[in-house]
Specification:
Largest sheet: none
Shape: elongated
Number of helices: 3
Number of strands: 0
Strand content: under 5%
Length: 102
């Protein structure tokens, strides 16, 4: 995620003068987070252990567990960056917690 601090510019903006290496290789795995998400975030009915579903409350509970050192303000900032309904570069729109979290 380009955030202006850790990644100040998109990786596509890097030029040969920006990297101290002769050869650089990089890649990403689209939707890699899916492998680490509780499957319960996908459905309307609560499932899994611990139990999750596709609700805002369940998403918040998952965030708190996944990022235990985040302050309330940091959690709220994260929710603003990844709203309950939104778009991504590879998905036209999303409106459920599993895609939002992954």
């Amino acid at each position: 995620m380009v955030d202006g601090l850790f990644l100040p510019r998109p990786l596509s903006a890097v030029t040969s003068g920006d990297v101290n290496a002769k050869v650089v290789w990089g890649m990403y795995n689209r939707r890699e987070g899916d492998y680490f998400m509780p499957p319960g975030l996908q459905g309307a009915e609560t499932s899994g252990a611990p139990p999750f579903n596709n609700s805002e409350a369940s998403f918040h509970m998952w965030l708190r567990d996944y990022l235990p050192t985040f302050t309330d303000g940091e959690i709220q900032a994260l929710k603003r960056l990844y709203p309950a309904k939104g778009t991504t570069t590879d998905t036209l729109t999303y409106n459920y917690s599993f895609t939002r979290a992954s």
